[in-house]
Write a structure and sequence with these properties.
This protein is mainly β and about 240 residues long. The chain has four helices and 13 strands. Strand 10 and strand 11 form a beta hairpin.
């Protein structure tokens, strides 16, 4: 009897190997699998109009922690030197000819594309959203996410997550009214080195902008820590110096 009791206690004390993850844990793993908590990266944004005309932007981006991010425009020449900063729910745009930071909102787009400022200056999903429900489908988890505050760009997200890679496949973004604002498609998983293996292509389309498409191409992502001063309004005029 004592032996049986001892075995039962050991069984209870041992964590279940391969125990199932809950929705919140899955979302947190998605965040870290997409990118390190602090990093630098290069991206190309391509806006495609219905007639096939394109406009391209190249950005150098730095992120620290879970909710501080700054992006420097490297091209085209007309936008070179512009800087966007996000601290939590607050965002600013700095342009040399203006000489001071201008407040911008998450739903605006500094490029005029389907990608808005919240997409371009994305912080961790788990910072902005809570998991209301998790369902399992063939090969994927379906997470139903609700914005934590009214400042978040999208009131709700539906995120399909690959079960093996724990990376998003598709995200549908909705307004509080239930209107579908856009769909994000994650493609072309690539090994960036340093343990970072994630989609290299992000495409978006919107029923509100039929015929238009925007694409984000990730060419480099690397773990890197930065001093806090980079993520301040006073430093925005100097961000370009980091690339010289």
């Amino acid at each position: 009897m004592k032996k049986l009791l001892w075995l039962m206690l050991c069984f209870v004390a041992l964590p279940a190997a391969g125990a199932a993850l809950d929705g919140t844990q899955i979302l947190q793993k998605v965040d870290r699998n997409l990118e390190p908590e602090s990093y630098e990266m290069f991206r190309k944004l391509i806006d495609i109009q219905p007639d096939g005309a394109k406009k391209e932007y190249v950005l150098y981006t730095m992120k620290k922690g879970r909710d501080k991010i700054v992006a420097l425009f490297l091209s085209p020449a007309s936008d070179k030197g512009r800087v966007t900063l996000r601290l939590g729910d607050n965002m600013w745009l700095y342009m040399r000819d203006v000489g001071r930071p201008i407040r911008i909102t998450s739903l605006q787009s500094v490029t005029g594309s389907i990608f808005n400022n919240a997409d371009i200056l994305r912080v961790d999903y788990s910072v902005e959203y809570t998991v209301e429900k998790m369902e399992e489908e063939k090969g994927v988890y379906l997470l139903s996410l609700k914005a934590r505050t009214g400042e978040v760009a999208y009131d709700r997200l539906k995120m399909w997550v690959d079960k093996q890679a724990l990376l998003p496949v598709t995200i549908e973004a909705y307004a509080a009214s239930g209107l579908l604002i856009k769909t994000l498609h994650f493609k072309d998983i690539k090994d960036f080195g340093g343990g970072i293996k994630r989609p290299a292509t992000l495409e978006t389309d919107s029923p509100l902008q039929k015929g238009y498409k925007s694409v984000m191409l990730f060419s480099a992502i690397k773990k890197r820590d930065f001093p806090d001063e980079i993520f301040t309004l006073n430093y925005l005029p100097r961000v370009e110096e980091l690339r010289k």
